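Sample pair:
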Amino acid sequence: MNEQARGWVEILTDNDAAALWDKLFKLVSRHSSIRTLFNSDRIAHARLHDLNADVTQDLFLRLHRKDRWRHYIDAGYSNANIEHELYHIEVPNLVSLQLRERQPEAYRMARRISNLVQTSTEFRRYRRTLAANHSEGKLTTRVFGLREWPDDKPTRAYQNMEDLLKDVAYRGRDRRRAGRGGSSHIIISNRDLTDLLVEIFRAVDSPLDVRIVRSLALSKLPVEDSRFVSIDAAVTPDSVPDPEPLKVDFPDQRPTPEQRLLENETNQQAEAIAAELLDKMREVVRHKPRRYSRLARVAWYCYFDLSSPSQTTIARRIGISNSLVTHYRQLFDAIIRDVELGAGLYIPFLHAFSTTLERSISETAGSRDNIRREPETTASPRYPLARAAVATQFT
């Protein structure tokens, strides 16, 4: 009995951490915001005890990091003052922090709805007689309605209101505008949100408290509060004392033997078409190595280089005139136009041809010293690049 009768000041003075934690746990367990956060009526007693213990531990460490326990003693707080600050300030702040972390969009929209019903000219507060277990000071229990309604406007039962909102249109998500930090969507503007609240009040034709207004408005808004959870997490209802983890049999994403065989045949067919295309490129330049090298380079720069250089840049790199680049490009276009590919050969052919073309260019550049030089008149005097630099372009 003496342990239960000890107040906050006595426990803090004695530096009894265990007693302090137990007393804080009792305060957290009976707090209305904690019961609302965890929906206590639908959670098993054992799981609810663990959840309250987790919140108590977070609150205990939060107060310890802020050195509030020492401040209560140094500032001469009484037991009533400590109880009041913990119950009305620290616990609600912790619950608000957890709501922002778990459901950031829903929390933000709920705050906006509360501000609009209090500040917009379309609404006003209705003074009603509240039940004994409700406090007039709590925002969630305050009743609001349309300003045009009389003071004696009757109140409807909440259970029938969802059917009355069937004609209220569901709002789309505004993805074009971001919030102040740029990391969140506006979802809906204040003007459109006010219009939605007016439609809800007119549909139910009854004053509503703030909690019900939030619930009805959020049901018509595209709020996205998805979270990543473990695939082994329990998916059974919280009312089950010992939920079993969900057993998921993942599909085998590896290709089947038939798919591998078809893929190998497709790659071989694409490689054969690529090799045939290179042979046609050699034939069109009459098997002259230097002209074939230029044709291959022009084709590479024009169609396979990720930097997409201009035709003038290609001429400068290769050391030929701009008109010769156009000539070789037209030759390659005429060759590639005659290639016929099936529906599933486009990507394998591009991969095989680009690899084969790059390899062919490297081999041609490596054996250029053994190639008979052609007359220098083929190169434009506007591009006086050194032949050695051209020879090492692809080596």
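The chain has three domains: 2-103, 106-218, 262-391.
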